[in-house]
Amino acid sequence: MYERLNGHNEFYEYLNSLTVKEQAKLLSLIKQVELNGISVAVQQHWIGVIDSDIT
Fold it and tell me: Which helix or strand (DSSP H or E) is residue 41 part of?
C-alpha cells in the first residue's frame, strides 16, 4: 500500500470504511489477482477498466 510522506494511506482508510464482509471480499480478490496475474483477472472479469483514457 502506498503511504504518503505525512503517513496518510488512502487505501487503508477506504478498507477500514468497508464492512468486515466487504473487506474480506476485496482482500480475497486482491489475493486472487496476485496469484493468477492481471491477464487472468481481466479474462475472468474480476477487474475492469477504471478510465478508458489510461493506456
Answer: helix 38-43
To which residue does cell 504518503 refer? 4
Sort residue 37 into left (φ over 0), alpha (ψ -120 to 50) or beta. left
Residue type for 15, please?
L
Contact at 8 Å (CB) between 9 and 2?
yes
pTM of the entire predicted model: 0.72
Place of cell 464492512: 19
Give me 11's grid cell.
487505501
pLDDT tens string, the chain, 55 residues long: the values are: 788 999 889 999 999 999 999 999 999 999 999 999 988 998 898 887 666 665 5
